[in-house]
Write a structure and sequence with these properties.
mainly alpha, Arc Repressor Mutant, subunit A, 4 helices, globular
């Protein structure tokens, strides 16, 4: 697993934990705070970039009017990344 994919998966895991705690409206700062609390500081732009990557994988969606992100129900991280990697190879 590449470092980028490892980071994407770690951020996705943090998003899932935040959602499980009852917060279904996300901003990158929420995840920056989670990582900071765990002693793993990340920059907000790094997290924001990963949110876009997760959106491209179909795992997150954004409300363009509010800038609020939401987890997409029913999509598995491993399946989404496998499907995306298969699509990238075939194009």
């Amino acid at each position: 697993m590449s470092e980028t994919l490892r980071l994407t998966k770690a951020i996705y895991g943090a998003i899932c934990r935040v959602v499980a705690d009852g917060n279904d409206s996300l901003r990158p700062g929420d995840i920056v705070g989670c990582f900071r609390d765990e002693g793993r500081p990340l920059g907000s732009w790094e997290v924001r970039g990963q949110f876009s990557r997760l959106e491209n994988l179909g795992l997150l969606k954004i409300d363009a009017a509010t800038g609020i992100w939401q987890l997409v129900d029913g999509v598995d991280f491993d399946e989404a990344t496998t499907q995306a990697n298969g699509s990238a190879r075939s194009s």
